Amino acid sequence: MPGDEIDLQPLTRRTGAERQVELSQPLQPGWYLFRFRANAEARLRPAILANWGDEAAEPTRLPLGQGRSGAYEALIYLPAPLAQLALKLGFDCELAAFSAKPVNGFQAAAHIARFGLGVFSLSPPAAFLLTVKARRVPGHPLARVVHPFPRKRHGRRDDAEYRRWIEQYDYDNERDAPGIERRIADLNSQPLISIVMPVYNTEPELLERAIRSVRDQLYPRWELCIADDCSDRAEVRSILERHAGEEARVKVAWRSENGHTAAASNTAFEELATGDWTVLLDHDDELRPHALAELVFAIEAEPEAELIYSDEDKIDRGGNRSRPYFKPRFSWELFRGQNYLNHLSAIRSDRIREVRGWREDLHGSQDYDLYLRIIERVGAGAVHHIPKVLYHWRDVAASAGDGPDTRASALKALGAHVERLGLDYHVGPAPGSIHYRVGPNPPVPEPPVTLVIPTRDYGHVLAPCVSSILEKTTYANYEILIVDNETREPETVELLRQLAGGTPDLTGRGSDSTEDTRTT
């Protein structure tokens, strides 16, 4: 049976970006749900460093993912007593909570099934109920770790696959630039593109790269509209003055007080932008060399377009690209769940003026709110997608694009959006993710729903099926009807008997659940 949650914070000693945990006694083998919170605006990449008692051996690194309600967590199977551990945060910040909760096989199975992870045999008593997947951990032959959100996209295999994709399908300057330049010359018109970039105390190297990515564009009719948000780093002013002196298309407005991204964007747009279209660029990101050319090609091909967006990826300090985001066509349902338009996004400048620019009370989600207000006016049919990677997000630890303040602002923007349209929708965070849930409110009273599950044997499949319903659904008036077709496996027969009696603890909720599970 699982034990009580172990509060590790009182046992934690601060050492810069690491927290050394002095265990009063070793954690015994078994499944543990490790969870912690930190008072940090930037997203962390935390990990537990486990020492199995051999001081000469390197600690095993057990990474944690971002889980429910912003907490960082991982379900970890310890194959041996854990004598020492440390929490590696990535940078120094205040630790709000840190705990380890022992869980039994049923609870581990339910947790893993809930997040769709697949094939690792649990030890008794749950082996006959479920097999799940967990990843081997380098440093210990038996250790396993399961993330609430699989992070395969960060792995070397995925990066290698993306590099192969880049080589085969992506833009190549030597091969493709001459053809793009010929297409630019053949355009019926060449609209002026205003690139709005708020700047505040940017790292000099990254600021240089961002500006250089604009100056290196194949399409010539652009203006870079920079608003410095009262930076106090001398290098920032020096870089901006130098580029503005070298290139007339680089314009700079100097703000007298710090007002954050929305205020700086408004300054750049209102005081400097004169173009037909406006593109948004963060001060440490990069445009692809053909980005503006592809945008203008799309503008000519889709004259009714009012907002155009492209695919994107991440780029590190060494120029290595990873984590591409190949986006779908515009969908209200998806967009209300996350701001997937992001970058590269281009908007007709008149539309920005019509909605009076960026709201300064929605720090972190000011672009999301702007897109919502504009698309409400122009309609989904005026939003077009360029299925090409035209924008590099800077992959740095200090990015706070998905912090709690950003999510709070996004929910506020979505609430205002629903109210403006007069929709009877609920707005809130999506459980177990950093995204949002916006949709119609259910009828009152809720009509009864019967979920029919036909089955025969395969209890390891049935168990996560049932537990996922009990764990995930927020709809109250339902029943589960399991139709058995002559099951013969003794383990599955026992599972069906327990389900019919309402006794299995598949979700860690005990047998006091109010849901009705009937077996035929």
- Sum up the overall morphology in one term: globular
Approximately how much beta-strand content do the residues carry?
Answer: 25-35%
- From the N-terminal CA to the C-terminal CA, the straight-line distance is 30 Å
Number of helices: 13
What structural keywords apply?
28 strands, alpha+beta, 520 residues, 9-stranded mixed beta sheet, globular
Task: List the SSEs and their pairings.
Elements (H helix, E strand, L loop, with lengths): L5 E2 L4 E4 L2 E4 L8 E10 L7 E5 L8 E4 L1 E2 L5 E7 L5 E5 L5 E10 L1 H10 L5 E2 L9 E2 L2 E2 L7 E3 L9 H14 L3 H13 L7 E7 L4 H12 L6 E7 L5 H13 L3 E5 L5 H13 L4 E4 L5 E2 L3 H11 L5 E9 L5 E5 L6 H4 L9 E4 H6 L11 H13 L4 E12 L9 H18 L3 E5 L6 E5 L8 E7 L3 H14 L5 E7 L5 H12 L14 E4 L1
Parallel strand pairs: 15-16, 15-18, 16-17, 20-23, 26-27, 27-28
Antiparallel strand pairs: 1-10, 2-3, 3-9, 4-8, 4-10, 5-6, 5-9, 7-8, 8-14, 11-12, 13-14, 18-22, 19-23, 20-21, 20-22, 24-25
Helix pairs in contact: 1-12, 4-5, 10-11
